[in-house]
């Protein structure tokens, strides 16, 4: 049985000699129910198995304890939590600014960025910036926002309709795909590209070998 020599940490369960009850409901290493046994007997079994006695349900009467490798359990739990954080979807709002009299090339470039953001599962805040006399022509910005929304309707939808905000006009587009779905598709696409690259490298290596063998035979 392992001895835990560190100071008490309230966030962690009591283990081994920190458990201070006369008896426990014991669960074996494979999840089997051993039953209610004296604490001394449970600690003895932990020593025989070279495992820890871990209190998993302190409020039960008697408390439920399990035989396990507590160090391994903590490590695996930390890895699972890390993986969950890695795959967690964070809502991101990207921003794209346009002028009401934008030229076609700049519009296509800006639209390309919006398309990329929506494909990634991100929201996009579109801001039309008016200057000088343009402020008297809000319909120019409205028509531009409508045009952009129609151009990307296969990827996103208007989450917040165009509205005037001082010298600007703002619209928010939301993606049809959830962030988690976009992340999963991106990982699959990356894996597919890697597989294709490796296949091409193998074919090239095989072609190089055949060429070398041909030269050797000649």
Shape: flat
Largest sheet: 4 strands, mixed
Number of helices: 5
Mean pLDDT: 86
Low-confidence stretches: 4-9
Distance between the termini: 72 Å
Strand content: 15-25%
The ordered string of helix (H) and strand (E) elements is EEHEEHEHEHEEH
Biggest sheet, spatial arrangement of strands:
2-1-4-3
Overall number of strands: 8
Topology (elements, then pairings):
Blueprint: E1 23-27, E2 33-38, H1 39-49, E3 52-57, E4 64-68, H2 70-87, E5 93-98, H3 104-119, E6 123-129, H4 138-151, E7 156-165, E8 168-175, H5 179-217
Parallel strand pairs: 1-4, 5-6
Antiparallel strand pairs: 1-2, 3-4, 6-8, 7-8
Textual characterization of the structure:
This protein is an alpha/beta fold and about 220 residues long. The chain is about 45% helix and about 25% strand. A hairpin with a 5-residue loop joins strand 1 and strand 2 (about 35-40).
Question: Can you give me a brief rundown of this structure?
Answer:
The protein has 218 residues and is an alpha/beta fold. It is built from five helices and eight strands, in the order E-E-H-E-E-H-E-H-E-H-E-E-H.
Keywords:
flat; single chain; 218 residues; 5 helices; alpha/beta
């Amino acid at each position: 049985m392992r001895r835990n020599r560190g100071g008490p940490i309230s966030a962690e369960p009591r283990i081994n000699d920190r458990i201070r009850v006369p008896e426990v409901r014991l669960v074996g290493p494979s999840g089997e129910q051993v039953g209610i046994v004296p604490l001394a007997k449970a600690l003895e079994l932990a020593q025989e198995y070279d495992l820890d006695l871990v209190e998993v349900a302190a409020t039960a009467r008697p408390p439920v304890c399990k035989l396990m490798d507590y160090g391994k359990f903590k490590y695996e739990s930390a890895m699972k939590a890390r993986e969950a954080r890695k795959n967690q979807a964070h809502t991101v709002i990207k921003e794209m600014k346009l002028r009401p009299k934008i030229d076609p090339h700049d519009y296509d470039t800006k639209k390309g960025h919006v398309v990329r953001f929506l494909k990634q599962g991100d929201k996009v805040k579109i801001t039309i910036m008016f200057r000088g006399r343009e402020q008297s022509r809000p319909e120019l910005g409205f028509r531009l926002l409508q045009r952009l929304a129609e151009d990307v309707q296969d990827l996103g939808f208007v989450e917040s309709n165009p509205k005037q905000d001082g010298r600007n006009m703002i619209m928010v587009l939301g993606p049809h795909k959830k962030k988690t779905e976009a992340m999963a598709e991106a990982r699959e696409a990356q894996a597919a590209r890697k597989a294709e690259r490796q296949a091409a490298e193998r074919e090239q290596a095989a072609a190089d070998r055949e060429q070398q063998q041909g030269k050797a035979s000649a």
